[in-house]
Amino acid sequence: MTGGARVEDYLALLKPRVMSLVVFTAFVGMLVAPAAINPVIGFIAIACIAIGAGASGALNMWYDADIDAVMSRTQNRPIPAGRMTPGEALTFGLVLSVFSVTLLGLATNWVAGGFLAFTIFFYAVVYTMWLKRSTPQNIVIGGAAGAFPPMVGWAAVTGTLSWESFALFLIIFLWTPPHFWALALYKQGDYGAAGVPMMPNVAGEASTKWQIFVYALVLAAASLLPVWFGFSGWIYGAVALVTGLSFVWLSLRLLRAPDGTAMKRHARTLFTYSLSYLFVLFLALLTDNFALRLGVI
Fold this sequence. Notes:
The protein folds into two domains: 1-161, Tetracycline Repressor, domain 2, CATH 1.10.357.140; 162-297. The protein has 16 helices and no strands. The chain has helices spanning 7-13, 16-32, 39-63, 65-68, 86-107, 110-131, 138-142, 144-147, 149-158, 163-186, 188-194, 199-203, 205-222, 225-229, 234-256, 261-294.
């Protein structure tokens, strides 16, 4: 390792694309919560959640540097590419973790701060260090880490957790396996070479396609929970219904696709769709919530 990391290498450690979804879902969780928060405090809270997410990414890249060096889509990350030492990444991740948790607790409340600490721990230790290399259920269980941010945002405003915030968690939690398994279906060579037991490599393509389809059905149903709990209206309900059925349809096409090139093409299509699914769904929830508060609907 040569070290000598540049600013852009530290930014890469934060996994900015992943962070953007984390920040957005936390922001929505904060705004749909049944209470108000001072805008300055709200900005600090979102910044802390973003920094905490970045810390998780840095700790993940520190621990996974060996398998990142094997997989084509991760070989150019700062550590395997030799632009940063593992020690630099570890120190960066730990400092950001402590800073984000402490500031969020002091700025809002310690329910939110403690939950952010648990989220970082779950992603860095439970998922990255334990589940990822030991079980094909790594994404199923480990996906909880990526589903916690709207609950953290909700807690930052209310100081509590609720069934409504759990509904937001559940949507992201159920979205995670079909999202990553679709990726794994057309990238299974990479995961196999790295020794990561993703579902297609362990259970086979046919079983993975069936599981994706079942998760899509449950996800489509769970996406309607905000309507059921009464903190969204018809705008969100309509978007959730259409996007959920589209997810099911694409999963069904993948299920029916023959092995080989056709299967990989449909897997890529589903993965691409899933990238925008959560953003559209949570944007609809935010829009619907504003419309309800303004009395438009």
